[in-house]
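Q:
My hope is that you can spare some time for a protein that puzzles me. I hope you can help me see how the letters and the tokens relate. Thank you; the sequence and its tokens follow:
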Amino acid sequence: MKFNLFALSFFTASCCFMAVDAFTTTSTPSTLTGPFLTSQPGVHSTQLFHSPPPRNAPKHDTGMSMELDPEEIKIQATFAQHQQDAPKLGFAIDVRTLVQYNHGFAVISTNSKANEGYPNGSVVGFAPDEDGNPVFIFSGMSSHTQDILKDPRCSLTVASKQFKGAADGRVNMMGKVKLVPPEQREAVKAIYLKKHPGAFWVDFGDFNWFRMEIERINFVGGFARAGSVSPEEYKSVKPDAISEFGIHIASHMNEDHQDSTIAMIESQVPGINATEAIITSVDSLGMFVKVTRTPVGSEEKQQFKMRLPFPRKAENRKDVKDIIVEMTRSA
């Protein structure tokens, strides 16, 4: 059976929270090294790693033999090197950016007071404060409020504003949610209302302000990007400014200039021959693009997300436009 690396390696990465800036490695009897599948007698697996590989790095036994066209091997090697070298914001900034520009709703998981031993999940409104800590306004009647008052340990799962599936970013923050001291309530109220201007219930008598004290952060930025960020790293960075309006640029490109995106991809990784290229996000250092292509020697289409870097850092909206025009003309 023929099976292609792109589909498998990106699928593998989507299942993993532990690998950081993950790439697929190889251990073959030949001289091939880099982003290839392991090929040993009776064993076919992928391994995600950052340098150096973490202990007990996750592997997936695919149970399949792989036959790759020699030209396809070259294309995939070029692609993997390109992705490894492509500038990215870094996990801490990615997480801070995702949380900051989320639509303001997430899933909080608490330890149930009514059903001991079971988690209680609720969709709640939140807003990040100046340090990125989520703040909430909860009714005393809500089950999650009762849970928190008994046991403040919980987690908050935040998806990117454009989340549609496994290729898109999400963050899970764990910590303790506690009541905000009286002297800080007006400040957090202003933060919350900026995110939720229609939240008239903030002044109701049975509602109280809470804030999460973050203790652990897990991040999945899409296929082949997963890992953890310390609270200290998270609080030490600021959200990427370009990402705030990046989705509008992406929408314009996807609707009117997809051929330009395909040309830019081909100029950076010759041979990809993308048939579709949907920009999923734009930041100050580049774009993430969901690519559809048919590999050499195969008839099956595949989709994966790739990084398309800018030649320089973009400082504002006009700069992003100028850079994309330059990249399109040079493609």
In short: The chain has nine helices and 14 strands. Residues 1-57 have pLDDT under 50 and may be disordered. The first helix runs from residue 5 to 14. Residues 154 and 210 are 13 Å apart (CA to CA).
